[in-house]
Amino acid sequence: DAGVTQSPTHLIKTRGQQVTLRCSPISGHKSVSWYQQVLGQGPQFIFQYYEKEERGRGNFPDRFSARQFPNYSSELNVNALLLGDSALYLCASSLAGFGANVLTFGAGSRLTVL
Amino acid sequence: AQKITQTQPGMFVQEKEAVTLDCTYDTSDPSYGLFWYKQPSSGEMIFLIYQGSYDQQNATEGRYSLNFQKARKSANLVISASQLGDSAMYFCAMREGGTGGFKTIFGAGTRLFVKA
Q: Mean pLDDT for each 10-residue chunk of chain A (114 residues)?
């Protein structure tokens, strides 16, 4: 079975541009979470979606938005990019969004903002 | 509010020896879960072990064990018989079980170096 897949793996943008990152969860997983990981730091929670509804939001500005589709895949959008948005963006899926459900992570999308 | 603290930025251990990575947490929710993940230099996060707040016994998974001390709010990871391949970043994480149950937060991590 395929794991969590993310695309693109690497991308370079300039300040002010917009970016869309995509995530396909493991088959059967209904929850997707997004994290931002700046080099040398732990992952910071951005969003969680479960059954196509937003169930959690981290302390990120409104420039960050996401959605989950009927097939449970997800997109993360970031508008008006800043240099500080340069990071590894990790997507994780789980069977459900709560309890002991383990997050399975994708390889990430590395965003560089120039 | 949820909080995870890892106070060891870096740790060194000799191959074949055991090492303990520290993690303390803070939550007001009586129901929560604690996780440890490994992140090698390749970048992918790998799940290692889980401990629920109501679990009576400490979790173990192969060479990994979780030293859960609920009263002290600590959840230290013990790696026995360290291997060179254990060199990586290790993150402690927590998910609350109540209304905040849809968010898993991570600590800052500990970088483990295994010496031959």
A: 91 97 95 94 93 90 96 97 97 79 93 97
What is the spatial distance between Cα B91 and Cα A60, in angstroms, rounded to a whole number? Answer: 21
Q: What is the pLDDT of residues B99-109, one digit of tens each?
A: 555 788 999 99
In this structure, are residues B34 and B105 in contact, taking their beta carbons and an 8 Å threshold?
A: no
In contact, A72 and A92? CB cutoff 8 Å: no
How many angstroms separate the CA of residue A79 from the nearest CA in chain B? Answer: 23
Compare CB distances from A98 to B50, B91, B101 and report the shortest one's residue.
B101
Measured distance CA(A109)–CA(B4) in Å, rounded: 25
Q: Do A105 and B44 touch (CB under 8 A)?
A: yes
